[in-house]
Amino acid sequence: MGFRGAWNKRNRLIEDLDTFLKLYKKAQKAYKKVRKVEFSNNDELIENAKKRYQEIWDEFRAFVNKKAWVDPKLWATIRKMNQTGDRKVVKTYSRDSQVISDFVNHTIAVHNGKTFVPIYITPEMVGHKLGEFAPTRTFRSHPEKSAKVVKKK
Fold first, then answer.
1. Residue 37 belongs to domain spanning
2. Which residues pair with residue 116 across a beta bridge?
3. pLDDT band at 7 (very low <50, low <70, confident <90, very high)
4. 3-class DSSP state of 28
5. Domain assignment of residue 42, yes or no
6. Distance between CA atoms of 150 and 141, rounded to whole angstroms?
7. At 108, which CATH number?
8. How many angstroms separate the CA atoms of 120 and 45, rounded?
9. 15 SS3 class
10. Could you tell me if 78 and 103 are in contact, meaning their C-beta atoms sit under 8 angstroms apart?
11. 4 in any annotated domain
């Protein structure tokens, strides 16, 4: 029952970041409560905590499923940078976050499993996932045929 980001099918933008963050924090608190209560012997407490968490989680999923998924911390950072006019490189592990219009003209360093790959966001990238621009595998040319390799008929 861990927290996972929802995948969006409609590619819409979340306009209300404050509501999103409130629901996100509410879901996290409810999940922590479930984890805390699981060690008690009171089955009624456990069931109530799980039921409450499920209600909050369903509300969060209903809100997120209609919108594009963006990591809340990444979005909050970019939002602050837009307000102050900063243009620093932002590091993120969130490859599944979608590029939204707020990210345009920013450089986001996306982790590819080994290093952070800096990506300058352009308007053409809006709607794509950040992970699409940070390849996880390096392509080295195909091996050349050597004289030792002989085809058998």
1. 17-65
2. 111
3. very low
4. helix
5. yes
6. 21
7. 3.30.860.10
8. 49
9. coil
10. yes
11. no
Neighbours of 106 (CB within 10 A): 19
Overall domain count for the chain? 2
Distance CA(53)–CA(26), nearest Å, equals: 9
Which residue type occupies 57? W
How far is C-alpha 32 from the geometric centre of its chain's CA atoms? Answer: 21
Q: pLDDT band for position 148 (50/70/90)?
A: low
In Å, what is the CA distance from 48 to each residue of 37, 53, 80, 128, 152? Answer: 10, 9, 38, 39, 70
* 122 and 91 together in one domain: yes
For 95, residues 6+ apart whose C-beta sits below 8 A from its C-beta are 110, 111, 129, 130, 131, 134
Residue-wise pLDDT for 39-58, tens only, equals 888 888 888 888 888 888 88
Q: Name the percent of the chain lying above pLDDT 90.
A: 29
Global pTM reads 0.53
* Length of the chain in terms of residues written: 153
Confidence of residue 152 (pLDDT cuts 50, 70, 90): low
**H helix or E strand, kind and range, residue 109:** strand 107-111
The label of the residue with tokens 């595998």 reads 137
How much is the pLDDT for 80? 93
Interatomic CA distance for residues 144 and 147, integer angstroms: 10
